[in-house]
Design a protein that fits this description.
The protein is of the alpha+beta class. The chain contains eight helices and 15 strands. The model has no long low-confidence stretch (mean pLDDT 97). The structure holds 4'-deoxy-4'-aminopyridoxal-5'-phosphate.
Length: 291
């Protein structure tokens, strides 16, 4: 079956789903995106994703030309057209078609694109064994540059760091902020576990406020675990008992080696495993309730 892509409410076969070369999303990375996931036909934490999407648009002076309800409908229409129940969903809003020049005022209506397809970031064996990460020399953008809380179409900061990781055989790269504290990985938030307590960088550490991050904090607290949102350095990562990353696509992926240092037992630890199981239960409960 040909994948159908939703562009401005019209479902088109993949080969016909095209955007103008004068769209500022293409010319300048001028636009925003969201990565969501549906389980069993229900999108997990849809409201939070749409709120974050609208917040990103607001920060960039982009007026999304439809309501959140219409956007939710577009997502479900696309899932239905593709006969998908478990899928990764990519929402994109570009500034629109303009000219060769930065002037955003010359752009037409923002373009809305919905792509739904399967996405597996990591093989199942990596969930069992854990991944290795390395610190990138590329630093996360400071909040007074392009705030990492904005999920903009310009992901070059993260892409450069990811290339650095891949160049040395690592699946992900750890990004520090301009203060030298741990920020996040290129497409995931980071947690460390020490003495049974969880530590994750605060929102103002130049990170994207991950929906999975927030769900994991809730899950961990409901399990009676202490969760601290505080600044920390790589030293705390090296000396952690466990470490894992969170994201809509990855869910929770254990990290077992950082900058050549093996963490804890060198295998995914019990706290990570327990939180992953509890997270999956939460997802199942929430996506069943809403159906
Ligand atoms: N940080 C960055 C830079 C991201 O792009 C993402 C999303 N891929 C995340 C963290 C995780 O966010 P979420 O849990 O909302 O998917």
């Amino acid at each position: 079956m040909t994948l159908k892509i939703n562009i401005n409410g019209t479902l088109l076969p993949e080969s016909e789903a095209k955007i103008s070369v004068f769209d500022h999303g293409f010319l300048y990375g001028d636009g925003i995106f969201e990565g969501l996931r549906s389980y069993n036909g229900t999108v997990f934490r849809l409201k939070q994703h749409l709120d974050r999407f609208w917040d990103s648009a607001k920060a960039l002076f982009i007026e999304i030309p439809v309501s959140k309800e219409d956007m939710a409908k577009a997502i479900y229409d696309t899932l239905k057209a593709n006969e998908q129940v478990d899928a990764y969903i990519r929402l994109i809003v570009t500034r629109g078609v303009g000219t060769l020049g930065l002037d955003a005022h010359l752009c037409g209506t923002p373009q809305i694109i919905v792509i739904t397809r399967s996405l597996q970031l990591y093989s199942s064996s990596l969930y069992e064994e854990g991944i290795k990460i390395v610190t990138a020399s590329t630093v996360r953008m400071p909040a007074n540059s392009l705030n990492p809380r904005v999920k903009s179409l310009n992901y070059l900061n993260n892409i450069l760091a990811k290339i650095e990781g891949h160049n040395v055989g690592c699946e992900e790269a750890l990004m520090l902020n301009h203060q030298g504290n741990v920020a996040e990985c290129t497409g995931d938030n980071i947690f460390v576990v020490r003495n049974g307590k969880l530590l994750t960088p605060p929102i103002d550490a130049c990170i994207l406020e991950g929906i999975t991050r927030n769900a994991v904090i809730e899950v961990a607290k409901s399990m009676g675990l202490e969760v601290l949102e505080a600044n920390f350095t790589r030293h705390d990562v090296y000396c952690a008992d466990e470490c894992f990353l969170t994201g809509s696509a990855a869910e929770l992926i254990p990290v077992v080696e950082v900058d050549g240092r093996s963490l804890g037992s060198g295998k995914p630890g019990p706290v990570t495993k327990a939180i992953l199981a509890a997270f999956r239960e939460l997802v199942a409960a929430e996506t069943q309730q809403q159906r």
